[in-house]
Amino acid sequence: MSIKNRINNVYRYFEPNLIIIGYLGSIGFPLYFFVWHYLFPQPYENFFLRLFCGALFIPFVLKDHLPYWFLRYKAIHFIATITIGLPFFFSYMLIMNDWSIPWIMSFMAALFLSILLIYDAYIISAISIIGITLGAFFSYGFHPINSENFHWGYIAVISFSYVTGIASHYRNHIHYEDQLLFARSFSAGIAHEMRNPFSSLYSSMELMLDILRQKSDNKESNVNELESIIRSNMTVINNSNETINLLLSSINEHAISKNTFQEYSIVNIIKSSVESFGYQSSKDRNLVSVNFNKDTNYFGSDILFRYVIFNLMKNAFYYKEKSNFNININIEINTNNNIIKVRDTGIGIPKNNIDAIFDDFFTHGKKNSSGLGLPFCKKVITAFCGVISCQSKLGEWTEFTILLPKVDSKSVNKLKYELMSKKRLLYIGDNNSDVFELQKNSFSHGYNFNTVSPFKLIEIPFDQVDMIIINLDSYSEHDYYFSKLQDKLALLTTKVLYLHRTPKSLNLILNEKINYKLINANNIDNNFTDHICRFFFIHFNNQKNTPRSTTDTKSILLVDDNMSLRMYTGILLQRSGFHVIHAENGVNALKNLELSQVDLIMMDLEMPLMGGLETTKQIRSNKRYESHKNTPIICFSASLDEKQQQDLSKVGMNGFIFKPATKEQIFSSIERFIN
Fold it and tell me: For residue 331, what pLDDT is reported?
């Protein structure tokens, strides 16, 4: 692990306690000048040094109100403050006070405090060595002292206490990390076991829909209702898998993951949540109403916000048997806040329990509940810079109020700035003024910026950027480089901004499969960079309908250890005219490749005997499979983190599809590679 990552981890670990330490340091340093100078006089004191050290702790107190530029250096400031305020200051004062007993005790206390603040053995050792060395240098180097009180036994005792403290604290932290790792593994295992039946069920429904469509002339009157139910179930399954992915991402980040936050419509998300909720009967749907005066956007995650609405509705439906039960979701947009109120006419909550319902593991009136739903909802809304609260009247109603800030509010802009430091922007074009503006403002806005020539296609890092800007004026109609660039972009989900200033560039044909927006740069030149940066956080909702793939009996090798998923997907492909070869693992896949010629390979990542990565390595490098060296390989997996996606590219896989995939997604990927 790099030094930068270690420092950031140490800061995140102790960040919740920063304000307390900030108050203690900023007040304690100057205050103890009067203690040691007047109450219990010591040989040496330095009021200005104490003021300097105390000032270093003030940003800890003001951590939620600091300017945006300071946030980039907050972890470094934390380490520097601890180094100067503890080992340096106390070693310097110890020596200057001629190793007096009060200062030996103070020095020992400072060492133990620094060990408590920083668990990383390497970081604490480094700052202790640096701080004590500087303390000795400034005291002995500039103020020669002939101490009669010094004894080498002090060094032995201090060293033993120091090493023991580091070892003990480090061991406790390792135990904590082991528990956290177990929790992650356990969650990942549950999620994996849930995805397999979800994926199988999803594929079977796709097959049923396909059969219904092809025999539409002979359907009975209830077929339309059956298709509607199937589609509704598919939506619920798809949303459940998205929620699992995001929850696991949040667990891995030790907090709510904010990297994918964008602007979304409040009304659209709530209405889609209500429509896709897993009702036990059609009558339950009629118990929920949504009212709003107008719509606006919030900044956050669509998946997590749906999770919050789902959770509030699920809790309310627990008491649906109460007479005159209903759920009303009221959305009120005013000049200051976006207010969402979810009110149910259930049994209510006692007043003495209201303050505790957002506490971990607290439950009220429900059996077999973990008590983690509402606490997680609060974490989600807090991550959106919002507030959630609860009011209730026992026996009559319960109402949850969610306040979400405006997308241009100070708190949201601050959050956007924090996220901008992780954003990566790529500019493709030959407009020097655009490049100059984006490069000049990359530091103040926080994003990482790179540019490439419009006539260079080699090693363009498409998979390592969050947004790509393409200057259409750099290309001419039927341009070879533009055509190749479009082919590459069609395989990605990365946001693409097409900029144009001249009418002739609009004659270029844009691939509908690209996730793009077309922008007239003449309209934004006055505030170019600010307008561009807004698109980092705007949801591109321009999905196109993918036409059915036409094929001359192309062969597809389908490799997956999930038999039911493989069967349903195989039947779906066969009904569309493909010849499908089945294999349950990489070993059988390689045997099939020696016997048959295939046009495309769809392969799971984790399988017994031989997984997808090792199988791909064999296909790309082993001469026995020379005829398939360039055959497209699509990874068909339930989840892939960033490292796994990079590994896919390194071994030679051409792309990936997440399970469960819609029929349109499957055929869209097949069409890209097979045609």
Answer: 94
